[in-house]
Structures are given as structure tokens and as C-alpha cells.
Design goal:
By secondary structure, the chain is mostly helical. 59% of the residues lie in helices and 1% in strands. α3 crosses α4, α4 packs antiparallel against α8 and α6 packs antiparallel against α10.
């Protein structure tokens, strides 16, 4: 018997609830009216992590067993170097993406549907000229086309274009942007972040398609885009209202987040999702995951709890769960309706134990029998032993170490999916 039995004995009858999805949020609220959003802590952590990596790549950071950090204070003198270090990192990713598109093009024939879409796309481009209403129709077509095929056909459309066209468009944009950056005198963190985001945007699928549109239209109308001027305008628009003070050194030492209390959103939640902010959100997640001592920081115990939850929930709701160690919106919904409550802590230590053994004396009896048969030293566990007993946990720990010694990320003194499978087979 294997892990499939696990999903047949779970006592849950309904896992997912009806909550507002990300699509609903954008449909009814757009980007919202509040400056603060629940995603801000995670976004800030991600930017801080990236800044630390740029410091390391630029030779201004250090790496040891405990942390990765910038070794010097950052001010106007450092931001240009970090900006161009970021450009190099983005170039590497962009070149890999373009090479992948080229490889896809050579490995498969473009489907008829993709060719038809490309013909419509290029027909609209080459047939566009003039201004006012015609220009508006052109812009509407471009955006409507890109949005409608992004999920299903963007790759097909890009792979149908001549590789040299994509490379020329991207490389010329990058060159113009770099030249403008050299003259822009980037002196603040907001300017640097803006520059890196705009540079990254050059290599996104939507921007590539739009730029191919623009260059193709220019070939027909003779109005080719002025790349240098456009890049200069982007930097001019990003200048702060007050000039940076060279003597005001900020961020005396930036360290990668993840170890400070309540800053571990990126370690616990999926990218782009955060159900709230502060310590209480992480502690709430730890309670739902049955972590016995919710602390607000994400360590091995919490990561193991997430792994066990996702393994179990993926068997009962495969379309809503990805086993990636990060809690998504749909996984949060599942946890909210079926996870541990405060009164369960100290008795059940993970999602599997809660779902299989709470109120299920039959399954508890099978587990105790398996433990007694395997761990023969000392007094056997009584049939009515509870999960909250220290004696039970000690015996369970010995049993787990004996039966699953090589399981990566195994939780001590807990029933993991791997251990449950062994009990079931016995």
C-alpha cells in the first residue's frame, strides 16, 4: 500500500472555500486606492535580496554561512556601479530567453493557428499609418492581440518571428538605454530601481512584440523611433524632486532579509501573494500548519510543515496545490478551512497528523502497533496513548529515525507522508 491510502483516510470533506481571487481583485478593484498593499513587505524583501546580490556581484558584498550582505554603506557613488551590475545580470537572463526562443523555433514547426495569428499581427502592423483614429486603432489592436494570446500563444508568435529581428530590436533598445544611463548620473536608490525595471522590461514578451510593431510601422511610414531620446526621457522622468545629498549615506549595512523576526514572507508565501502583514500573519500560518510554537520566523520546522501540508493537500486537491515550499492563494484557502486550530497545537504537529489521526482511533491504533513492533526497547505504548504524550513522541521519534533515516527535510517525532506509507504497508 502506498501514499494513495493517505488520501482515502483523510477526514476532510471539503478543502477549498470561496474567496476573492487575484483575478477578482483586479476586475473589481484595479490596482486599488490604498498606498499600502499586503504584498509590500514581500516586494521590499525581494528588492533587498536583489540589492544584496548586486553588491556581491559588484565586489562590494560578502558571503558566509550565516548571511549574504553588502559590506559598505550605499550612497550616490555606489548606485551607478550597482545599476550597471544589474544591467549585466538582466542581459544574461535576456540572452538566455532569446536563445530559448530561437531554439524553440528550430525544434518545432509553428502551428497553423500560430501562423495565422502572426499574419494578422504583421498585417496590422504593416498596414498602419497616419495618426488620430487610425493610430488609436493600431494601438488597440496591438494591446488586444498581446493580451489575448499571452498565456497560450505568445511563445508561438515570438518563435514565428525572424530571430534576427528580435535580437536587433532588443539589442538596439538595450544599447540606447545603457548610453542614457551613463549620462543620467543615477544618485539614489529609487532612480536605480526604476532604471533596472525599465531595462528588464525591454526583454519581456509584450515589449518585444510592441517594439517589433513599432519598428515595422516605422519601416512603412518612415517614422522610426528615436531610441536615444526615449531612453533619456525615461531617466529624466525618474529624477527625484529633491537632489540626493552626497553626505547623507543611507543603508549603512543592508542584509538579506529572512532571519529577522517577521520578515520571512518570501520564504513562506508564493511570489505575488501575501495574506497580510507583520508577525501575526506568519504566526497564523504556522498555527494552521500545526507548528507547535508559532514564532513569526521561518525555520526548518516551518519549512517541513509546509512540505508535509503540500504533499498531503496535493493528493486531495491537485489543481490547487503546487509542491514548491511556498503557500499560494489557493493553498492559503485550504489551510484556512482545514488547518490546525490553537487547541490542536501540542497534540498534532503537522497537517497529516491532524487530518488522519484526529478523532480516528482506528488509525491511531495501527500507528501504535507499528511503533511497538519496531521499537522494542522499554515499555510498549498503551493502546490509548495520546499524540500529546511525551512518551508517545519519544517512541515515534525512535521509530521515524529507524524507518525513514534518509528522508530529506524529515520532521523529528512526527508522522510524515513517508512514515505513514510505511505504517500502511505494515
Amino acid at each position: 500500500m502506498n501514499l494513495a491510502r493517505l488520501f482515502s483516510v483523510l477526514v476532510f470533506t471539503s478543502i477549498a472555500g470561496c474567496t476573492t481571487t487575484v483575478n477578482d481583485q483586479y476586475q473589481y478593484e484595479g490596482i486599488g486606492v490604498d498606498l499600502y498593499t499586503p504584498e509590500m513587505p514581500q516586494d521590499s524583501n525581494a528588492l533587498a535580496l536583489y540589492l544584496v546580490e548586486l553588491c556581491i556581484q559588484a565586489g562590494m558584498g560578502s558571503v558566509d554561512e550565516e548571511k549574504r550582505a553588502c559590506d559598505r554603506s550605499l550612497g550616490p557613488a555606489e548606485y551607478p556601479l550597482l545599476t550597471f551590475t544589474g544591467f549585466n545580470d538582466i542581459d544574461q537572463r535576456c540572452d538566455r530567453y532569446i536563445a530559448w526562443i530561437d531554439r524553440i523555433r528550430t525544434e518545432r514547426l509553428v502551428s497553423r493557428r500560430g501562423l495565422n495569428a502572426t499574419q494578422v499581427f504583421l498585417g496590422g502592423v504593416l498596414g498602419t499609418s497616419g495618426a488620430s483614429g487610425e493610430t488609436l486603432a493600431y494601438v488597440t489592436q496591438v494591446f488586444g492581440f498581446a493580451n489575448s494570446i499571452y498565456d497560450a500563444q505568445t511563445t508561438t508568435v515570438l518563435s514565428a518571428l525572424e530571430p534576427s529581428t528580435i535580437k536587433t530590436v532588443v539589442f538596439e533598445r538595450r544599447t540606447a538605454f545603457r548610453q542614457a544611463a551613463s549620462n543620467a548620473k543615477i544618485s539614489s536608490r529609487p532612480e536605480m530601481i526604476n532604471a533596472l525595471r525599465n531595462y528588464l522590461r525591454i526583454c519581456t514578451p509584450q515589449t518585444i512584440l510592441l517594439n517589433v510593431n513599432e519598428f515595422s510601422r516605422g519601416a512603412v511610414t518612415g517614422n522610426t523611433p528615436d531610441l536615444a531620446r526615449e531612453a533619456q526621457e525615461q531617466f529624466a522622468a525618474a529624477k527625484p524632486l529633491v537632489a540626493a545629498d552626497p553626505g547623507n549615506r543611507i543603508n549603512p549595512r543592508i542584509e538579506a532579509p529572512g532571519r529577522a523576526e517577521c520578515s520571512d514572507f518570501g520564504l513562506l508565501f508564493a511570489s505575488g501573494f501575501a495574506p497580510g502583514r507583520g508577525c501575526e500573519v506568519i504566526r497564523r500560518a504556522q498555527t494552521l500548519l500545526c507548528v507547535d510554537t508559532p514564532t513569526g520566523t521561518v525555520g526548518p520546522k516551518t519549512r517541513s510543515a509546509v512540505r508535509i501540508f503540500e504533499t498531503v493537500a496535493a493528493g486531495t486537491k491537485p489543481g490547487a496545490v503546487s509542491i514548491d515550499g511556498r503557500i499560494s492563494q489557493s493553498e492559503w484557502d485550504i489551510l484556512g478551512s482545514t488547518g490546525c486550530k490553537a487547541e490542536d497545537l501540542g497534540t498534532f504537529r503537522n497537517y497529516l497528523e491532524l487530518g488522519v489521526y484526529k478523532g480516528n482511533s482506528s488509525e491511531q491504533g495501527l500507528l501504535i502497533q507499528a511503533i511497538n513492533a519496531s521499537v522494542t526497547d522499554g515499555t510498549p505504548l498503551p493502546a490509548d496513548t495520546t499524540f500529546g504524550s511525551t512518551t508517545f513522541r519519544a517512541k515515534l521519534d525512535s521509530y521515524a529515525k529507524k524507518e525513514t533515516p534518509t528522508v530529506e527535510g524529515a520532521a523529528p517525532a512526527q508522522v510524515t507522508p513517508e512514515l505513514f506509507a510505511i505504517v500502511s504497508e505494515g
